[in-house]
């Protein structure tokens, strides 16, 4: 028997909070990882996944109280090691890929220099050999033109390229253990597939133990040898992947498996973790109706938004390696959006989705083309003339925290749009409407006095939805509004948007890089690539019979949920 590369026995982590007192983030968990094997820890935000990995790395703040029987890396006991001893292990024997590469990379240092720094700190190589190893690593992680990439700064790389650079840094000293903490969150499905394949290849090449942390069970189905499910700091079940996926024991695990939109049908609502937990507790809660909603034909509704020849071109500045060039972010888009429909726009990062959406609402002024909203051409209107238009045409941004003013309470955030547009009467009437909107999005009215930082990511996104509803808009553009959320929270938000449309008839334009989410939510889909719509049609038809090679590539990258050693996908709960 091969000894485990990592063994954690009875790990507990507590934090002291001035208001809430002692918080138990991790409660007496144990696990081990063998060389060349993968353990996936799965759970929602706040379940204790990342805290557990940071405890292994010795990166928790001084306010954390870490208790364990042992945390062993091979034969080395990590508990009680000094700061300098842990620094010698971090990077050298344990590599870590963080969730947000841009916040983990030094913005003032080139990519090549940062990779070399990791090796220099551990005295593995020096001089020219150091530079050659850095270039080799960039080539190994699949970055084009390693010499050029080594000279670039983090902001000059795409999200997928930044994550590859992080992987190169993490494996630079050929560690025994690699920790990947949500390494593909918010990445395109195609880039996500590439990053996962890259991590697995590197793991096998170096025979590393891999601790893979994620909230998406379907994603780890074909990655993990073992899966541990965490909920509120506890490890509910830990079993071989194939066994767990075939017969999940806990209701929470079944809920996580069911949250992802099914690919073979369009249910009325998505199942959530709460559906399974309430049923497990023996309440009278009934599973939601799964009858598919009927879609009105195009003859029954009129056009609310129309784009004709819409283009957005930029002149890129010249650099040392290239002259000034015209970049066509959006090029000659023709599009009609019917009133009351749900239109999905899907594509990779850089395909022009967000640029197109911001042109629609005139946050960007298009280079040419016409935008007609409710029969009025708004493409040439001035900012003052656009104010009444924007009351009816609202936008939900991808990052809810960046979209909310941290200095305002939720009550002020919700009432502000009504004040700007002179709606709602006096303060009391506006506050009442804010209360109604909070209840509509599933939040308690007493939360109105809180600030954005006091909410979870899913709750902040609900606040953003409540804010756009304050103006009773006719069309809402959702720009990647669920891409960075847990799959359980994502299901809740999608159900909420469907409920809102059913009651108010609002038109939705839903932008995402995840074709499975778009297929579930949207009635019609536009597939974008390199600034153009390459395919358009009914969602079910595009999924069943994709015509364009790019669409087929997006479909192939969707996690199928087929565990290692199995030919069957995950059990369907629909």
Descriptive notes:
The protein has 574 residues and is α/β, with parallel strands linked by helices. It has a domain of 234 residues: Rossmann fold (3-Layer(aba) Sandwich). The protein has 22 helices and 21 strands. Strands 7-8-9-3-10-11 form a six-stranded mixed beta sheet. A six-stranded mixed beta sheet has the order 17-18-19-14-20-21, with helices on both faces. Helix 16 packs across helix 17, helix 16 runs parallel beside helix 18 and helix 17 packs across helix 18. It is globular, with a radius of gyration of 25 Å.
Radius of gyration from CA coordinates: 25 Å
Q: Could you tell me how far the N terminus lies from the C terminus, measured between alpha carbons in angstroms?
A: 42 Å
Strand order of the largest sheet: 7-8-9-3-10-11
Q: Percent helix among the residues?
A: 25-40%
Average pLDDT confidence is 86
Q: What structural class is derived from the secondary structure elements?
A: alpha/beta
Low-confidence stretches: 290-299
CATH topology of the domain at 302-312 and 334-556: Rossmann fold
